[in-house]
Write a structure and sequence with these properties.
It contains 7 helices and 18 strands. By secondary structure, it is α+β, with helices and mostly antiparallel strands. A hairpin with a 5-residue loop joins β2 and β3. α5 runs antiparallel to α6.
């Protein structure tokens, strides 16, 4: 399909596409989420994004939560991404992305429920990343022959992996690379546990559940910086991965500091006493909150963490974990509905409710 100006994109199967003048709106089959394409000529991204919202919602007045400016990539000159504040009750994600080519900002506005994005984000990405006006051409490795990963190229990858591990604050990981059906590289990086010296080796066992999380810490962009670096080494691609990694580390640190600035690391004792108790969920089993001195402790059996109190702008008070590696996540929202105290957690775009255990 094409936008009114002629920029080509692929619409996800089953999505409704509506054109209103120079605005194109894509909605999923259940109308849970929408992606809106608008082209603007403002000089700066913030002005272009603000004008785009006014075109579709004259009363749009959400506060900006975060602005990031990734390096221009995939044929685009500049990027700017904006995330907006939403309330806990809304359970909604609203954000925008502006990509510049020559004198035009190609703005995409995203609005939908958290659960809707959990189901439809893959389709939204198809539309967003396929949008290409004239002149936008990605670097392609199609038809090129990959180099053999010799000692020099493997050492370059090894150095980059260790840079990425440190930048993403990952205690340890193991990497294996196969080429031509044979293992050409296998090595452990870092340690098995923070504060201890036992190293990760190629034979270190990892729990199968959620091991993708530390890996995706190294893959913060579409395609990922590690995959990008591998392609650079294999095909002599443009040197972009290190710049992307530096940006990702800087953004991660800024996000962490911003979120932790909202957390009271020594929450009120009365608040902790009120939440103290044992809770359970069919998937996650039992967890408990107890008070030790003036410190709250979250106990999941195999591991424990300190807790803090995070107050959102809508007045919601959340319980967050404060010990590595759980700092800032997950977040639990206490509820007193129907005279019963429960803990609500968002996991994989779903609401998980921990019920109180009687007699504990």
């Amino acid at each position: 399909m094409k936008t009114p100006s002629g920029a080509a994109f692929t619409a996800p199967k089953g999505w409704k596409v509506t054109t209103r003048g120079d605005v194109m709106v894509l909605e999923d089959v259940n109308r849970e989420v929408s992606v809106t394409f608008i082209e603007r000529k403002e000089l700066e991204a913030d002005a272009a994004i603000a004008a785009a919202w006014r075109q579709v919602k004259r009363d749009f007045a959400r506060k900006i939560k975060r602005v990031t400016t990734p390096p221009g990539r995939r044929g685009w000159d500049r990027f700017t991404d904006v995330e907006y504040e939403t309330t806990t009750e809304e359970a909604r994600d609203v954000f925008a992305s502006a990509r510049r080519k020559r004198d035009t900002w190609y703005v995409a506005l995203f609005d939908g429920t958290e659960e809707g994005w959990g189901r439809r984000w893959a389709g939204a990405k198809i539309a967003f990343f396929s949008l290409k006006p004239e002149g936008v051409e990605e670097e392609s490795f199609q038809g090129k022959t990959a180099h053999v990963l010799d000692e020099r190229r493997l050492r370059e990858l090894e150095s980059f992996i260790e840079e990425g591990r440190k930048a993403a604050s990952i205690p340890g990981l193991a990497v294996a690379i196969l080429q031509g059906g044979k293992v050409v590289f296998e090595r452990g990086f870092g340690v098995r546990e923070l504060g201890k010296k036992a190293p990760v080796t190629p034979r270190t066992l990892f729990r199968i559940a959620s091991t993708t999380k530390p890996l995706t810490s190294l893959l913060p962009f579409n395609g990922g910086v590690f995959r990008r670096k591998l392609f650079e080494v294999l095909f002599d691609g443009r040197d972009e991965a290190r710049e992307d990694l530096a940006y990702a580390a800087q953004t991660q640190e800024a996000d962490f500091r911003q979120e932790m600035s909202k957390v009271d690391l020594e929450p009120d004792r009365a608040w902790l006493d009120h939440l103290a108790g044992t809770y359970e969920h069919p998937w996650f089993g039992e967890v408990s909150i107890r008070v030790e001195g003036n410190r709250g402790v979250f106990d999941a059996g195999e591991w424990q963490s300190g807790v803090g109190r995070k107050k959102e702008e809508d007045g919601t008070a959340k319980l967050v974990l404060t010990s590595p590696p759980w700092i800032g996540w997950p977040e639990f929202v206490p509820s007193e509905a129907d005279g019963k105290r429960t803990l609500h957690m968002r996991a994989w775009q779903r609401k998980v409710v921990f019920e109180p255990v009687k007699g504990k």
